[in-house]
Amino acid sequence: MSPQERRICVIDPSNGWLSSWKSNFERLEIQFLRSPALAHPDMFDPHALLSYAVQHGREDELLESGCGDIKKLLALGQSQIGLWKLPSTKLFVDFCLDLAKELHHTFVGNTTVVSIKKNSRDVFELGLSNGKVVQAESVVLATGAVGKPIVPVGIQDCPCLRHWTQAPKTIDENDPARCNLPVVVVGGGLTAVQVALNELRRAKASLNSPSVILVSNRPLVEKHFDIDIAWFDLRTTNKCIADFYHNPMEARKQALRQARRGGSVPPLYMKELFEAEQNGRLLCLVGEIERSCNDDLNPSRGASICIHHRDTTRPRDGRNNPVTEPISAVSSYQVKELILACGIQPDCERLNSLTGMIQSKWPTRIESGHPCVTQDLRWRENMNLFVVGALGSLNIGPDAGNLMGIRRAAQIVASTLGSRNWLRESVLVNPFEALNWSDDDDDDDSTVEGEEEEKERQSLEKSFLETSDMSDTAEESMSSSDFSLE
């Protein structure tokens, strides 16, 4: 089926593409992506984002990240042409929006799916919060991770606690005692660091105490990416995928935990952290946090907390081989507020979630909060309900929530739906005709080898078709399938 024949409908609670993504990046003032320029949604051209930057004269929005200097990547041509540079947030957004304009689709925004069922014709019917119903032959869940924020037990009842995506609580600017208190950020990954740095930019400088305290349950880990670089290296990606897929389920869960290990921080951010810590504006602590027994639970006065340092070591200079200092103590602080950035606990059966509704209607095996989808990413066998993104981690791999993993998942779904069959139509002929070889061309010196020559020709033709079949899939496969909107 060609792109023009397939009808695609995208349902989103926002009013446009990348709305939540842009909102979160703007909230934290993130200027550059963590993923390199080779990670993007274009399914055909691996250089598309880099080419876009060059064509629009925006090469200055590609940041040298140091990835190209990694010994494992030096031999790759990608390192020489800039594919390991980091695109700016604005460049990436503009590229994606331009790409979306080229794709045939209908965008239904400002609404959510509140019900899902199959009718008598075995067609999905999705009820929307705006009262409309969408009918679709196939449905692709690209909802991102489903679950609830992780909250350390010791601060669950703290009234000054908020998640980083929530707006700050109103504070009386006329109360200098409260306004000058530090902010505590809880978490040990990149998001926690970005929140801490953003709070530093907003905070008033103080000569006597740090403006922000970053508390993590283990020392910060410096890495360019949140998964092993082998998953990005084209020479080793297929091996990583094969090794992961052929593991039993328990081993896959362990691999997911090991791949991320609680989060990591790129060198660029570690350098900023170290400078802020050296200036006395930031305090990085490793340990467990809890509300102090002296806390009167009055949010207008901030919160009293205790941090129990572990007998461990923590980085001091943000390098790969950091100088360390042993610490073991208990500290008490009066703070303005606590901001959570500890990630989420996957739970696809969460009450009132779309996946929860699907699980109650079409139960499937659940492990560690993730559905055990099929090899072709179906929710259940012989069912055109697909899962991409972090929700499909158990069958996609630890990069499921990243751009590269999502693109690979889109290829799998597109292949299953037959969305790339149109790529083969032009080659379903005798491939030798492209070389102007014709059966009608007789030559006195030529001889026919009979069955052996015919078998060889068929073998070559089969090889040609299989090679064509390995082409990247069409972009529109990342959305839903044929639909009607009532």
Automatic annotation (TrEMBL):
Compositionally biased residues, Polar residues: 465-486
Sequence ranges assigned to domain FAD/NAD(P)-binding in this UniProt record: 106-226
Record's compositionally biased regions (Acidic residues): 438-454
Region (Disordered): 438-486
Pfam families referenced in this protein's UniProt entry, alphabetically: Pyr_redox_2
Domain of life according to the entry: Eukaryota
Bias (Basic and acidic residues) ranges: 455-464
A single MF term (Gene Ontology): oxidoreductase activity
Protein name: L-lysine 6-monooxygenase NADPH-requiring
The organism of origin for this protein: Nitzschia inconspicua
